[in-house]
Every structure is written in structure tokens, then in C-alpha cells.
Amino acid sequence: MKIFFAGLLLFTLNIANSQTTAYLGRTDLKAQLGFDFQRNNTMGAVATMDYGLGKNISVGLQVAYLYNVKDIDGLEPDFQDRFDVKARVNASLGKVFRMPINMDFYPGLDFGLRNFGGHLGLRYYLNNGIGLFTEGQFVIQKYTSSTEKFNPLNNQFAILAGLTFDLHHEPN
């Protein structure tokens, strides 16, 4: 029994020691791959890359493509209706809220092909270099008031979820 508890203690210490810092500050580099969920059972893929500029600020790029889109009035959306690119600015507030070192809360703004919006996200690193993320994105101002059938795609509230990768990680 002592050997079991000693092994459990060593395992726990190893996990605690190997956790990635969720945001390092300047030169931090994170990539995220996940799913993009929108209204009417619309689903797609999303990839983001964020680069740390300072203690709490990062900039990045997001690319999304919706692949599960319902036809509207018998019409299928074109590539440009499904595709979106956004430039992002994030404020890393995990340390401000005294979250564990492997967690980060980040609100931000994004400037996309279809709108100016905001997002609230959370990253949680499971071990050295890989973790989970979730993000809610919302529209602040649409660029067009078009009533085109596919205008709401990538132009509405969305929930993103998936894996996050610490690309700045240096092995122990």
C-alpha cells in the first residue's frame, strides 16, 4: 500500500510539474484547432494562432470554414459564404484573476471579413503543450445590412471548442 501511495504521489508531482503555463507574455505562441458551432445546426472547423506582444496582450489570426450548412430555398452556399478570416486582439487575464498557472481567461476583439466582434475564451492545459479551449464569439457591428440568404453565416453568435497547443513550449 505504501508503494501505491508513493507512486501516486510521484505521478501527481510529475503532472503538476509538467503543466504548461497558459500565457507566458511576450513571444508566447498558441495554436488552436476546433469546431465552430452556429445557429441552425451549422458546424465548421476553426484554427487560430495567437502571438504574445506583452505581459497581457496578444494578437492573432483566425480562419474558419463551415461545412455543415443547411440549404436555404434549395440553394447551397458558395465557398465565400462558408469561409471567414479574422484578425484578433486578446487580453490575457488568467494571472489577474489568480487562476491556476495552466488556465487562462481571455476576452478580445476581432476584425473579420463580415463583422467587427468580440470574444470571451478559456484555455486549460492538461499537460506540457496540449490542452482544451472554448470560446464564445459575438457580433458588435456587421459590415452589411444585406438580407442575402447566407449573410448570417459566420456573422452571428458562435461557440468554438477544441484543442489548444503551446508552440512556445520548451521541454524540461
From TrEMBL:
Secretion signal, residue range per the UniProt entry: 1-18
Which superkingdom? Bacteria
- Asked whether the UniProt record includes Signal among its keywords, one would answer yes
Classification via InterPro entries: DUF6646
Q: Which Pfam families match?
A: DUF6646 (PF20351)
Q: Which UniProt keywords apply?
A: Signal
Its protein name is: Outer membrane protein beta-barrel domain-containing protein
Question: What organism, scientifically named, is this protein from?
Answer: Halpernia humi
Top-level taxonomy = Bacteria, Pseudomonadati, Bacteroidota, Flavobacteriia, Flavobacteriales
